[in-house]
């Protein structure tokens, strides 16, 4: 594939995340877990900071990237969506993934998709494909640490395939993607707080709604994580 064909493949050939109850794309981590295992679990080759929330998670991820680079770390950054061009979603030390690497790794991931056995009717989706591609790129670039912004929610987000991150960051939560994440702020908070894993540090932003904060705190306590928040 050339660069144009790569983007056409990503946007037109792969299923996007659909609403709750849809059959074409079932939420869950089973596919991304099997896929990452199939390509050698590249996400285990670097430390991570995982960012979820409703408001400010993209800007928070970018600020963390800047701080870590200023401290001398070799940093990967994975965000979504993009503002101008697709490459913005995958960066190393502030530099967007080059065309040649995007095209090369897309071909590699597409080939891996063909060799992956999934339950009947299930397919790797666009976000899962892009996440796996980003993991491979960050591993190739030997990043010290990668800042991962969730795409949607947290519990079933493809980025949640990682093992325990160094830090989980929860930015302010409000009602978003309600067809997928739930009807109340508390339900949505539970989905986003599901990125919290044992022994990681949890940084919770000020300004959380009254319904969200207890849910996040309970998730932290249940995981035995270390709380840093209001």
How are the SSEs placed, and which strands pair?
Blueprint: H1 3-13, H2 30-38, E1 47-52, H3 57-70, E2 75-78, E3 90-92, E4 95-96, H4 99-114, H5 126-140, E5 145-149, E6 167-170, H6 178-181, H7 185-193, E7 201-204, H8 213-223, E8 226-228
Helix pairs in contact: 4-5, 7-8
Task: Give a short summary of the structure.
This protein has 230 residues and is of the alpha/beta class. The chain contains 8 helices and 8 strands, in the order ααβαβββααββααβαβ. β7, α8 (213-223) and β8 (226-228) form a beta-alpha-beta unit.
Structural class: alpha/beta
Average pLDDT, rounded to a whole number, is 89
What's the N-to-C terminus distance? 49 Å
- Specify the helix fraction band: 25-40%
Percent range for β-strand residues: 5-15%
* Radius of gyration computed on alpha carbons: 17 Å
Largest sheet geometry? 8 strands, mixed
Helix-strand pattern: HHEHEEEHHEEHHEHE
Number of helices: 8
Kindly describe this structure.
- It is globular and about 50 Å long.
- Helix content is 39%, strand content 13%.
- Mean pLDDT is 89; it is low at 18-24.
- By secondary structure, the chain is α/β, with parallel strands linked by helices.
- It starts with a helix and ends with a strand.
- The longest helix is centred in the middle third of the chain and has 16 residues, at 99-114.
- The chain has helices at 3-13, 30-38, 57-70, 99-114, 126-140, 178-181, 185-193, 213-223, and strands at residues 47-52, 75-78, 90-92, 95-96, 145-149, 167-170, 201-204, 226-228.
- It contains 8 helices and 8 strands.
- 40% of the residues are buried.
- It has an 8-stranded mixed sheet with strand order 4-3-2-5-1-6-7-8, with helices on both faces.
């Amino acid at each position: 594939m050339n660069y144009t064909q790569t983007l056409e493949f990503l946007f037109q050939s792969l299923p996007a995340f659909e609403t709750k109850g849809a059959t074409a794309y079932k939420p869950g981590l089973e596919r991304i877990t099997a896929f990452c295992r199939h390509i050698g679990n590249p996400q285990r080759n670097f430390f991570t900071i995982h960012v979820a929330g409703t408001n400010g998670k993209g800007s928070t991820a970018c600020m963390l990237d800047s701080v870590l680079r200023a401290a001398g770390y070799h940093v990967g950054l994975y965000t979504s969506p993009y503002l101008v061009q697709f490459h913005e979603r995958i960066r190393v030390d502030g530099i967007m993934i080059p065309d040649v690497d995007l095209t090369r790794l897309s071909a590699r991931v597409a080939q891996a998709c063909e060799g992956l056995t999934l339950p009947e009717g299930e397919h790797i989706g666009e976000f899962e494909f892009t996440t796996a591609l980003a993991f491979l790129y960050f591993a190739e670039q030997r990043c010290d640490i990668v800042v991962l912004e969730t795409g949607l929610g947290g519990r079933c987000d493809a980025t949640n395939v990682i093992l325990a991150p160094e830090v989980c960051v929860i930015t302010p939560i409000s009602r978003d993607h309600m067809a997928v994440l739930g009807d109340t702020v508390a339900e949505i908070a539970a989905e986003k707080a599901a990125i919290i894993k044992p022994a990681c540090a949890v940084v919770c932003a000020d300004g959380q709604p009254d319904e969200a904060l207890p849910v996040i705190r309970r998730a932290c306590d249940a995981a035995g994580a270390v709380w840093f928040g209001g």
